[in-house]
Design brief:
Layout lengths: L10 E4 L6 E8 L6 H20 L12 E8 L5 H15 L3 E7 L1
Parallel strand pairs: 2-3, 3-4
Antiparallel strand pairs: 1-2
Length: 105
């Protein structure tokens, strides 16, 4: 899976420490040379994950879920524009028990 597979969840599983948290993974292998295009793709992917959560599609595989962690695995570190955007999105989603975690490989 890849960030460019917009309609797919790259990975999902129950959190090891919190059994009522569903971790949803995004595999971002793109560089930031064309950051505006990259950010648009990332936004589309995050919107699809948000819609997946809000439409409760996860219920076909998991029950008892109370919160969500979207973990974005970056091959390349996000630039300042992307970091600012992700902080803003993260703040907006916290109230809905949706959290974002960034991992840079």
């Amino acid at each position: 899976m890849s960030i460019t597979d917009l309609e797919k969840i790259d990975g999902a599983g129950i959190d090891n420490e919190k059994s009522d948290r569903l971790n949803l993974m995004i595999a971002d292998n793109l560089d930031w040379v064309e950051y505006d295009i990259h950010l648009e793709i990332l936004t589309d992917k995050l919107n699809n994950y948000y819609n997946y959560i809000k439409s409760k599609q996860y219920l076909s595989n998991w029950s008892g879920i109370k919160e969500f962690m979207i973990i974005i695995y970056f091959k390349y570190a996000p630039n300042d524009v992307a970091n600012t955007y992700l902080k803003k999105v993260s703040e907006q989603l916290k109230g809905e028990n949706i959290f974002i975690k960034l991992v840079i490989d």
